[in-house]
């Protein structure tokens, strides 16, 4: 029997060969592979760290500009489309996909590691605590979400606005046009699939270790052993596959909603039983410090600080690389759930709300741990800072209801594990099938099984760090790709805005409907160079000459200027104190869409380059196509602009615009 599949061979086969090949190398030769990849990674971090700094900065600036600009009102979909999910469910899903396990893994570990790092040993404990909060905010704040936001926005826009497949290749449409359907498009999707797989595999591998550590702390499991990790992965990946099979509207949505509620409960618990006043005060001060330091943090490369450069590579640059390497997966998932949102709503939600929650979360857990370390633990948590797998549970030992809180933490990690895995399975299948609407269930099971098998194989062989290095290396080329996303998106947004705001042609203003048959013939035909020049030499010239004669009768000295290369003609009225009045018409060309050459039911053209008569003015205002004007309509249009000119020069406030400086060329 022929197995039904929606997988695209040009994407799936090369991706699987590369994924399995790298994983096998990392498992069979873990130390050698890790050393080789670390050499490449360290070279990039040391010599090309500025690429990450500038690209992430550009992402933030671009999104803030788009959010505040006129393009913010553009909807991700048809103009009348509505969001598929309510705001709470939407925010829950993008948050679960965007941070997930990492939020639980680093909420205590990162602030404690900054606080206890020897690089900052010269600072006082209070200064080290402030410093730890600031850098944690920096690494988990707007910059991280801007990376996800750029990819998610580009994908959602081109998928729902241009009606292209929900695929990274679609983001290049304004630059590559139909070439995205061929080899170039496959290369982009292969890169996205491999990057997504590597990122999810390493994260799930580290997540399993933390779950195992928590279960040992609670005396549910006797030790951290591979056999227990196999059992954990088998159960959780099975749940993830079940969730993925049920679809986004059920599995992922329900689990994300449950988890965000559980996360808020845990947050409020720690806030209530911890040093509450200290936490609220430190959060308030931390926000102010972050805002005041935003630009210095953004552009700081520590090039003048030899003692902190290695820390900078190991933390800031590693984080930027990690977020970038995760952005194809997270961006695809965010785009999938964001149909119907406006660009302003999308960017504001993606940049501000998760960032604010991250700040609250990191302040409550990180600052609680630091406060306890200074006042109750007597440095014990600092000593445990390099053991992030168990640090969260060690921290909870100093709070009341330790067992209950630990159970809640494990439950949250478990759900984050499942939501990360099932959304990852969905995204990988979407990339491999070019966003097929319906796929057979065996594909979903297959991706989940491959994730579990390779994650366990690497975990057992000690190859997860090698795969992590590979993931970070892929971030460099993808940061360049993301900058091209911005170019492509900016180009598309300008076209989009012009398309929907384009008004009726200026020639429709004076037209009463008389001679409509002749007008129709003109509308459905394109002019060549000869017919355009003929229009200027006959209709335009006759209109201008009649105007010159009538101006003379009324005591106004006007003249007609003609230039045959390129063909143009203008009527001019000269002045000494103010700018001359000029209304001209010149022949211009433009390139039309190729389909107009073959489509029978559209205006026909013999060549892709067509010509038309375009008006221009002495003050360099934008002109327009006047080919449909009759002689009298053209006269009317000139007088309309002349009346405007007289009104403008008569107002004192416009003196700076109407001075005679521009007339020196006629002296």
From TrEMBL:
Q: Which GO terms describe its cellular component?
A: plasma membrane
Specify whether Transport is a keyword of the entry. yes
Instruction: Just give the chief location class.
Output: membrane
UniProt key word Nucleotide-binding: no
Annotated membrane topology: Multi-pass membrane protein
- Per the record, the domain of life is Bacteria
The record's section on InterPro entries has: BCCT_CS, BCCT_transptr
Q: Where in the cell is it found?
A: Cell membrane
One of its Pfam families is BCCT
- Keywords on this record? Cell membrane, Membrane, Transmembrane, Transmembrane helix, Transport
Spans through the membrane: 12-32, 44-66, 87-108, 142-162, 183-206, 226-248, 260-280, 317-335, 347-372, 404-432, 444-464, 470-494
Extract the PROSITE patterns matched here.
BCCT
Q: Name one GO molecular function term.
A: transmembrane transporter activity
User: Matching PANTHER family, A to Z?
Assistant: HIGH-AFFINITY CHOLINE TRANSPORT PROTEIN, HIGH-AFFINITY CHOLINE TRANSPORT PROTEIN-RELATED
Q: Write out the similarity annotation.
A: Belongs to the BCCT transporter (TC 2.A.15) family.
Can you say what this protein is called?
Answer: Choline/glycine/proline betaine transport protein
Organism equals Chryseobacterium takakiae
